Amino acid sequence: FLQRLATLAAKAREEAWQSRQQLQAQQQEVAQLQEQLSSARQDGERWASALQRAQREALEREATRGAEQARQQELIRDMKGRLLELLREKDALWQKTEGIDTPMPSPVPHDAGLCARCRKDFHLLSRRYNCRLCQGKVCHACSVDMGKQGRCCLLCYQQRHPQAT
């Protein structure tokens, strides 16, 4: 009977030792999981902080963009107003000069390298056009596009279409 009791005691000691080993292994695993949880929390806090910073910067950029857009819209309104003022001024000046006889187009200059109206040199960026009415050489600024008929100088266009300007 004692031998059996000794065997059971040895077996119980072995099971207790194994239980302690399992308990230590589980405690180590719990410690590792707690470290991982702590690391994950720190990462979460860093990501949350980065997200808040990014959201704050996005809001600041949006506010800046909104202010810039408002400034540009105000500038556009001012420019449209100024354009309307200039158009009214142009119309008033045109009405004042409506009764004045327009001079005949000047004869074609002999120098083909200059505009017949403004006397600017023709070069790579300033194109030369032939007036379809007086045959003068004129630049883009001094000519009017008449569609299929081609371009003509401003004076010829004004004489042919007095109501146009």
Structural class: mainly alpha
| Shape summary | rod-shaped
* Major β-sheet profile: 2 strands, antiparallel
How many individual β-strands? 4
Q: How helical, in percent, are the residues?
A: 55-70%
How widely separated are the two ends? 131 Å
Q: What's the helix count?
A: 2
Please indicate the percent range of residues in DSSP E strands (runs of 2 or more). 5-15%
Strand order of the largest sheet: 1-2
Radius of gyration: 46 Å
**H/E series, N to C?**
HEEEEH
Count up the domains: 2
Low-confidence stretches: none
Spell out the key features of this protein.
single chain, 62% helix, mainly alpha, two-stranded antiparallel ribbon, 165 residues
Task: Summarize the model shown.
The protein is mostly helical and 165 residues long. It has two domains: 90 residues; 50 residues. Helix content is 62%, strand content 6%.
